[in-house]
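hi support,

uploading two proteins for the ticket. first:
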Amino acid sequence: MHSFSVILIFPSILHGYNMEFSAMEIKWNIDWFNFLCIANT
């Protein structure tokens, strides 16, 4: 599960947030990841 957290945080870094991404951005990434998981089932 730790590898997934890297995948969730990486997009924020790529978008220039670096370590300044907010909790809402992390939540959005998690919601998007969950959506993709549901869509693939």
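and the second one:
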Amino acid sequence: MASMTTNREEAGIKMFECNPNEEEVSKKFDEDGFVCISALFPGRVVQELLGSYERSFQECFRALHKSGRIPFPHSHLVEEGGGDVSYPLGVGVKHGYREIVMRSPGRYEVTYGLSASKKPFDGAVADAKVEHIVRALFKGCDYYLSSLSVVTATPGCPQQAWHADGGHVDLSQHQPCHCLNVFLPLVDLTPQLGPTQVRPGTHHHTRNLAPMMLAAKARKTLRPPLTPILNAGDALVFDYRVLHRGLPNVTANSRPILVMAFAKKWFTDILNFPRRSMLHAHHDQSSDQSTEE
């Protein structure tokens, strides 16, 4: 696991207040591809979100098992004696459902039971502080909630590969952000719990990744990864195009992060979840094509 410091200032991570100056936060976001917001939601709200999600997470696996889609009704199974870990789903969109995808071994993104129109998630999505930040980062452009999910890193899950959540809409030149994630930890993060690591500035490089990364390295402008160690209720807001990864969760506890993905009105994300639903009858999974592995 990559070395890191838990001191945000030493790590070069600026924490903005929950009602930041629009020009300042927008400039930082454009430069780095991400910003961190302190205390976006109070503890009471976070606990409501966590409690509701934990029930949905458990129910999701029970429902999958009841319908015969997975071999056991849990997110993971550890062999006796603390041996190998088994997971009930395969990795990637082609093995998942509209309600749940295992992004990497033991790391699930879940929409099951989450509704932007029902408590407690409706309040989070419509929160004035969230709206203030998103509108500033989109420079006042109209936007909508593209997806609402929770990413859970289960105990023992390994490190993810570096990846971006989506591509560029223009490969000839860099364009402003068209889609972003608001990551809200529902528990206090630690270096051991599998926090999200970000590569600052790479939302520019992913337009043509290999040559642009090499060029940045040659010019000595390629910046080292940063790992925000956030408290529950803080937020990591990042451009879909920036490189990031989840670090290993080496604890006995899960690490749930609420994800609110916002996009400009004209953009539709078709990559991150399959069309098929676990709530519908079985059908041939090969009919659902996806570019994600």
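thanks. also noticed: The CA atoms of residues 51 and 277 lie 24 Å apart.
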